[in-house]
Model the fold of this input.
Amino acid sequence: MKKILIVEGNLREENESFTEGGIKTHTESLKDSIDYFTKNIDIDVVNPSSDSNISDVVKNLSIYDGLIWGGSSLNIYNDTPEIRRQIEFMRECQSKIKNILAICWGLQVAVTVAGGEVKKCQTGTHRGIAHDIIINKNGLNHSLYKNKNKIFNTPAFNFDEVVTLPKNSTLLASNKINNVMGLSFKSGISNIWGIQYHPEISYEKMISLIHFRKDRLIDKKAFVDQNEINRHVKIIEDEIKITNLRSRMRELENWLNLVGIRIND
Done:
């Protein structure tokens, strides 16, 4: 049985607030999405910011066939001990794990370790949904986007973006808000597929996050007021009606295939 490691990017306090609000953590959402494709997999979970046994995990990283690093509300350019621990753990992973799927925050951490740069996005914010992502010629020929529509919408939530690519990177997909929506690069021994969005998180959860974070989002000027939130949520609700679940999660399916994990028919 294949064995993968899931990295939880949020701080323990953020996850506790999710649980209290009746919202699944990002790791729980990711596990649910993996279960849709297969249960024939052994999964461990680690939180580099909060776990006290992280040094023991580092010693055993080579046992994993792959790693999925998920989202977070953190900003990589903030120099905190928790973020530094995540950066250092990613550095260890890139030296010991062959295949990494880096999702949103995971992409930003992976890029930073590999010599790229992440900054606050100057062209907008993805607030639960990203529209009109276009897969470029390189992306159409890349396994990440096998059987994916050339232009697609997807769950997404981010204020930051990759502005400088690591060396030997291949840009795979973009939209009007983020030039880097899909990226492939190598760092250490790792083959890294990076995406600036969340195929593993449902639109329903994104709507819950918008309501849960509404005061914070208004303070950050992501929304003007509750009326704008209601209008935006309606857009996402309309997207739910036309979205095919398997197509939405195609990137996760393709990565599981890359690692050699048997997928349900």
Remarks:
- The CA atoms of residues 26 and 71 lie 7 Å apart.
- The radius of gyration is 17 Å.
- The first helix runs from residue 12 to 20.
